[in-house]
Model the fold of this input.
Amino acid sequence: MNRSSEEVDHVKGYMKKAAVVVFAGALMFATATAASANQAGVRVDGKERGYGGVNNHGNHVYACDTRSDNWGVRTRFVYVVSGGGQYEDVVGDGNGSTTGCGVRDLPLALTAVRFNVCAGVSGADTGCTGWIEVDLNDRAAQAGAANPSTISLG
Done:
């Protein structure tokens, strides 16, 4: 059976797209543990209070309170919008060592580029880590962010 050149080109294009999807899936699996570079623990008054961070695509922010001590843990983060502009937001977890963390999943048009992790009672930031730049891999280009290292908290 003879196929037209248009049909052959369509099949070739489909196969290339399928190969890219398979490669991207394998790459995502291989770098899944790299998100720990974008994570920080917070220690206040000599005690580990919890941890927080951002995944290496800048679209998943989390805060985890690991002690039952009436303190909460918050991850403050700066994110950029693909159309321009930068904003700050926070995700928190105040349930102590109870299972689960506070999470925020950002849509594709938003990319977290910087974060810090804080702990305190009743939402107070008694102690915080320094601001940490997110290792974005290729997410910054997808979301239209310029160079995240140039963003200031003015």
In short: The first strand starts at residue 39 and ends at 44.
